Structures are given as structure tokens and as C-alpha cells.
Model the fold of this input.
Amino acid sequence: MSKIVFLDVDGTLIDYEAKTPASAKKAIAAARANGHKVYICTGCSKAEIEQRDLPELDGMIGGNGAYVEDNGTVVMHQGLSAEDVRHIVDWCNERHLGFYLEANSGMYCNDYMLEQGPETMVKYASGKGADLSAAKQSASRFINSFIHLQGEDLYRSDVNKISFILSTYEDHLDSKEEFPHLVANTWGGKGELALFGDLGPTGITKRHAIEVLLDYLHADQKDTISFGDAKIDLSMFELCAFNVAMGNGGPEIKAAADYITTDVNDDGLYHAFSYLGLI
Done:
């Protein structure tokens, strides 16, 4: 029986230096040759994914569920309203927070992101195990991928979600109060040590996007497998029939997993594909 596999990207398919292990590429190619479908299910926008060196896939879920694509066909795209984007942009700028707008056409940042982003991304990569040199290189690549906009040019209507740097954890808590009709998450760290907050449309989750894709494919939930490394992936685990946590994953995702594989850079994806009989 063919399976439908959903892979988180950062820390699952690719490492924290944005590199895809050769063994992961080999595993995905072999699984697809065996008739299984493999999709990424990520918080990243399509523009960010297109900058990554990823293997050939059957499609993607992006923006934590805001965008669904199957073999080049857009199945669903539900982003933030232009009014919400304007409100978030103004709120972040008033608080002097660096942010970037995640759209399929690109990633658009404000002045503060250029100032605060390099140090924050070094912290992110270092916290995931990269040495200082590698962390600085990773941060530089990430910041250089942004399109810098100012003023009203940031009031866009094509935004899936918005990530912003947390000066303190209070920024995240305040965002939940300021935007009660949106979904507020954190990423890049644990608990109150989180580095980023993000805001996206209500009802958009990885789980919901998978449900939409399964309906489009006329596929059965019992044939699904998900892979993740972080708390944001728990919504996938709630739906999919079998769930794999990466060895480098956090305690919440490991506790919810049916199987824990090795680290992303220790052939974790390949080992799990083998264990599951996909290859």
C-alpha cells in the first residue's frame, strides 16, 4: 500500500545550516520510485523553499498550512488580509521589532530586521548546534534572502504570515492580545527563550492543510506518515496515522511520536524510511 509522507523542513529534512543530507535525498527518491508520495509541510513560504537545495517532491504545504500545492497545482491559498498586514506592520514598527512578511513571491523585511536579524539568526543556528562560524554563515544567507521594503510598500496583500523578532517574551503575549482573531506562535527557541513570534490567519494549521490535500487527492488518513522536530508539528501528529520525531527534536514532539529516529545529520530520515518499509 502506497503511503503519503509529510516532512517538516528545518531540523527534519534539512539541518540547521539549511543543508539536505545526501541520505535524505536518497531516501526520498527511493520512496517516490516505490510509489509513495512525499510532501513538505513547513512554516516556510514558497519563496523561501525555492532557495533551498531540496530533492524533487510531490508538492508542498507552506506557511504552517496557509498554502497547499500538489505537483504544481495550487490546491489552497489562504493568507492574511491586507488590513491585518497593515495592522501588524504598524504594531511591529511602533515597538521597533524586526519582522519579515512571508509571501509566495518573496520575503519582505523592514529596517529593524536588517539591524536585529543577523544577531538573532546567529543565536538560532547556535542554539541548534552550529558552531559560531557556521552560524554566522547561515545567518548571512538568511538575511540576504530578504527583499528590503520601507513605508507603505510593506502594506502588501499577498502575505501568508508574518514573523517578528521578540525583544522579550512579552512581545508574543502582547501580540496575542493585540490580534486575538489571528493565530500567534513562537519559534527559534524553547518557551520564554523563543526568538521569534509569528502571526497567521485563524483556522490555518498543518493539520487542516493535510486534511485539504487528502480530500483533493481522494486519499485516506490511514495511509499518512508525518515527520517533525518541534512543537509546531504536533498538529500533524494529531491527524496522521504514524508519526516520527527526529532525534534532535524537542521533548513535546518526542513524547507524541510513534517512533523516534536519529538526528537530521545522523541519517535520521533515511533510517526512518527504512524502518517504515518505504525504501
User: Anything to note?
Assistant: Residues 82-201 form a domain with the Hypothetical Protein, Haloacid Dehalogenase-like Hydrolase; Chain: A; domain 2 fold (CATH 3.30.1240.10). The chain has two domains: 4-78+204-275, 82-201.
